[in-house]
Please model this.
Amino acid sequence: MIRPSLLLASALALVLAGCGTAEPPAQTMQAPVLESFHGTLEPFASETVYFVVTDRFVNGDPGNDHRDQGTFDIPLAPCDGVAGNIGYLGGDFKGIADNLDYIRDMGFSAVWITPVVDNPDEPFTGGEPPGCGTILSDRGKTGYHGYWGVNFFETDEHLPSPGMQFSDLAGAMHGRGMKLVLDIVGNHGSPAWTMTRDQPKFGKLYGRDGTLLADHQNLHPTELDPVGNPLHAFYNATGPVDAKDGSIFDGNLAQLADFDAANPAVLDYMVDAYLHWIDQGADAFRIDTIAWMPHAFWKQFTDRIREKRPGFFMFGEAFDYDAANIATYTLPQNGGVSVLDFPMKQAMDEVFGRAGAGFERLASALFLEGGPYANPYELATFYDNHDMARMDASDEGFIDAHNWLFTARGIPVVYYGSETGFMRGRAEHAGNRNYFGQARVDAASDSPIHAQLTRIANLRRQSPALQRGLQVNLVLEGDVAAFYRVYQHEGVAQTALVLLNKGDAATRIGIDALVQSGAWRDAFDGATVEIGERIDLEVPAHGVRVLLRDTPVDAPALRERLAVLAGATHGAAVR
Model:
């Protein structure tokens, strides 16, 4: 979501004043591109995000459990000895608010929470029964996750407490300098057909005042009459589409009520509903199932949201490992929405999980130049979440993953519990979304993963280069990686030299090209480190070293490389 304005003259003056050196005209003329790149990077790019499935984090108020609904604590048969659960388990706004200091102290500046809108009040009787390895199998499942909205203006009753409404949670975050990322759904409502009996709320949609706007009436989509029945007009009448017959995105996802993107009333409803949550304190949106609605819908949606809240940041979930496919959402003509970086997720899982691939596997997922994204630096980077198996890695694998995640380009996102390796390797119905709880929060500091995550995440929070700097790769091979992150904007200049070792023994990393000589300081202990014509530094086993230099880059070869990278990124943004 880079903006195309450059302000070349002022940027050139700033760079020349900062560098204070005479250089060939071709090189100095490249400097404004670097400068303006940082000036147009979205502010949210500096954030680090902790993602919680609200119901599964901490039960701060048992008084809102609503156990009388028959939706609380519905365990599944164990998968390899671990049982999942498809009922509510009590996590709520108060459980998050009570632990904001825990999250912030780890180094996170934002919390992404699952949807807060009202969901049905009983288990779904239709669909397929869940089991080990199944997805989109919803029989007996409740709306604990929040993605089965029936009234997008109303808070689900399981989440708030007296004095802790959504706006209070947002206020608690803002009081700590943190941001609230709200998960939103534009594509679908609740499960809508295959029910064994009439179930209140399922397949229905209500307005702000509680008026019934739409009702699937437990009918298969192809039995709906959008033209003749006003209660069907919100929904598509396509039904699920098999991949062999066309695009699956043209049809329904499982048995969920599929909203008709071509109906202006759907757009109006979604815009009004989500502006309501912005007014209550939401700072950014994560858009669920963005690929299931066309670009034209998201373009109109984002334009109207940003008309009211200019610069509002959004990132979507297009569950696709092909960068060319998911990058289309980032382009201005399609709404300029960032996305979760699935190609990087796939690479990180291979590098830091049990497969043990080398750092070179990450190179192809970076897209630092010539890539399809409007801006790769604004991608939300992650290695797992609630919709896939958690990363199966050793403690050292998680430590190595975090050392990369918090130093490389992108906006780091970490799924709750990963700070201790919670439920590693587990899929949805096999423990992925299991309850974390206050006891695990209180014990998390005993985990070596937590300690090293806190160390690197807090360093990123203090470093403009690690947050927003251009990335220049030096080596990505085997167990070692080395790269620069370079930030120069509005009189602030910082370069970070990052050295990573995921091997079991300490190693020396030697580099002869693109060397920025001079005095650097160790970002962790403050010691001065002199670098001459060659970088030659030792990195501990499963360790990270970060050196900082708080003056503009003056090494000619490195400046030339930076200019190329900045120009390539800007070119992608405005095409």
Summary: The first helix runs from residue 8 to 19. Residues 66 and 393 are 37 Å apart (CA to CA). DSSP finds 15 helices and 22 strands in the chain. Confidence is low (pLDDT under 50) at residues 1-34, 571-575.
